[in-house]
Design goal:
The chain has helices at 3-32, 40-54, 58-70, 75-89, 91-110. With 111 residues, it is mainly α. The longest helix has 30 residues, at 3-32.
Amino acid sequence: MDGQAGEHVLQSLQDIASDFARYLIEFPFGDIYSRPGLDLKSREIAVVAALTALGHAAPQLKVHIRGALNVGVSRTEIVETIMQMAVYAGFPSALNGLAAARDVFAQEAGA
C-alpha cells in the first residue's frame, strides 16, 4: 500500500472501526503478501487486475497502481494489465481502470 494513501485510509477508520484498520494491514500485508511463491511485482499486477475487474474500486486501484510502480511494474505493464481486463470484466471496468492509471501517472509525473 502506498504509504501516504495507506496512512490516510488508516486514519479515516480510527473513529469508526480501529480494529478494521489493523486487519486491513495485518491480513493482506502480514499474512498474504509475505507468503512465498509470488514476488511483490506479480502480486501487485494481480491486485491491479482484480481491482480493475471489480469496476468500482478506483481509490483502492490508484493505491495499488502506485504500489505496483514502487515495486518495479512499468506503466506499460499496468496499462496492458488493465486492458486485458476488458476481455473478462468488460469495457466499462477497463475504461475506469485506465482513467485511474492516467490520474496516478499524472500525479507521479508532477511529483
